[in-house]
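Priority: medium. Attachment 1 of 2:
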């Protein structure tokens, strides 16, 4: 990278770090806040579902916009807008006017803007760095993002436990404003060859073109099938089952739970550092297989440890250390799955199609997740949590065993750029 590219890339990463720091604070505090308000896993699952559905519905349209308009400008506008909305939530909380209905309604709006922001940022990295530096750039971005998401949840648990939700909203809102300010200094010229005009026909034609591109390729299609099932199982476990188990059942404090949330991200950061330093030239397929098997193995170990007859032999801090270690290793192996896939996608998808195809991929990857979150919210109020962990671990293992046979026949060489 030359000096100009380095400056742009650093500003891009700083913007993400600042924004994610605030998001990490709120990510931990929000489920704890809802649990403290209601004590209901069902309502927590409903909130998680509401957080995701608007983003999924908006994503294909956001991708079309990301390919036809300046991606840097979209990032800046979305950060400022989200910052103002979250500061408004802070005001309502400071004045004791916050309600669950307001939280749910505002989350719908914020999720829509999250989708627009994500479509722009996910497609920008190849425009900021040379292709030879792409793996390092992606792993650096992910490592920096992980660092922010390590600090954020710790602060979230501490701030929520000591000062309450109003300060969580305030700090998150400020972080989005600062992120938008940083991104304004990125020198970015729109490189898309597509026209900037937009209408319903263009949007739906672009979405149809994206779906056709994805399902025409064996690698994308097979990854899609595996990801749909894995996300249906994994995401509800982390978003709904984890906070309910460790806060309500085991009795972690907000600070302990905040620290536990950082373990996953710490593992992802370590994994991305290892990828950038030692494995940037390794075969994607081998990295991905090792990562998947590592995640599944650690998840099975976690589910067995949470059986009451086993976990009750340990003090709460020993439980924290054991579970935290398992989650760090799971996060590390997750990086060996997600980062190679991300680099592969960045390489094979043409620039003028990148935002819309990434958005459609994201929708398909997450399509079943809201259903899983709502279902998990209902189940945690009715069944022992260790039983749910064991059932999920078995289902995830079966999914990976079925997919591993197909993975051996997948060609990860990026040969689709000219198709």
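Attachment 2 of 2:
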């Amino acid at each position: 990278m030359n000096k100009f590219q380095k400056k742009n890339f650093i500003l891009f990463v700083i913007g993400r770090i600042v924004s994610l720091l605030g998001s990490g604070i709120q990510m931990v505090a929000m489920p704890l806040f809802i649990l403290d308000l209601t004590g209901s896993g069902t309502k927590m699952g409903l909130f998680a579902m509401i957080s995701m559905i608007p983003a999924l519905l908006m994503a294909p349209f956001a991708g079309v916009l990301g390919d036809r308009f300046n991606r840097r400008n979209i990032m800046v506008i979305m950060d400022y807008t989200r910052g103002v909305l979250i500061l408004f939530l802070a005001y309502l909380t400071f004045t004791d006017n916050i309600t669950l209905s307001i939280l749910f309604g505002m989350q719908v709006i914020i999720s829509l803007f999250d989708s627009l922001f994500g479509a722009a940022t996910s497609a920008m990295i190849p425009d900021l760095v040379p292709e030879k530096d792409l793996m390092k750039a992606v792993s650096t971005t992910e490592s920096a993002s992980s660092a922010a998401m390590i600090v954020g949840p710790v602060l979230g648990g501490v701030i929520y436990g000591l000062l309450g939700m109003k300060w969580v909203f305030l700090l998150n809102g400020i972080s989005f404003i600062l992120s938008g300010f940083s991104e304004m200094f990125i020198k970015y010229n729109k490189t898309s060859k597509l026209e900037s005009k937009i209408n319903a026909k263009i949007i739906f034609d672009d979405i149809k073109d994206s779906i056709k591109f994805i399902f025409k390729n064996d690698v994308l299609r097979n990854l899609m099938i595996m990801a749909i099932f894995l996300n249906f199982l994994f995401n509800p476990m982390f978003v709904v089952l984890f906070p309910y188990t460790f806060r309500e059942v085991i009795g972690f404090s907000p600070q302990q739970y905040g620290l536990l949330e950082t373990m996953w991200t710490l593992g992802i950061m370590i994994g991305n550092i290892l990828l950038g330093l030692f494995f940037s030239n390794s075969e994607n397929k081998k990295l991905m297989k090792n990562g998947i098997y590592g995640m599944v193995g650690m998840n099975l170990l976690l589910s067995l440890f949470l059986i009451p007859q086993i976990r009750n032999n340990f003090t709460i801090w020993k439980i924290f250390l054991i579970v935290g270690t398992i989650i760090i290793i799971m996060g590390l192996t997750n990086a060996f799955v997600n980062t190679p896939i991300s680099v592969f996608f960045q390489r094979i998808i043409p620039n003028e199609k990148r935002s819309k195809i990434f958005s459609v991929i994201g929708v398909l990857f997450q399509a079943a997740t809201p259903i899983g979150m709502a279902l998990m919210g209902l189940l945690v109020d009715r069944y022992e949590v260790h039983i749910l962990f064991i059932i999920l671990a078995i289902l995830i293992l079966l999914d990976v065993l079925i997919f591993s046979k197909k993975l051996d026949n997948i060609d990860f060489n990026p040969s689709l750029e000219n198709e």
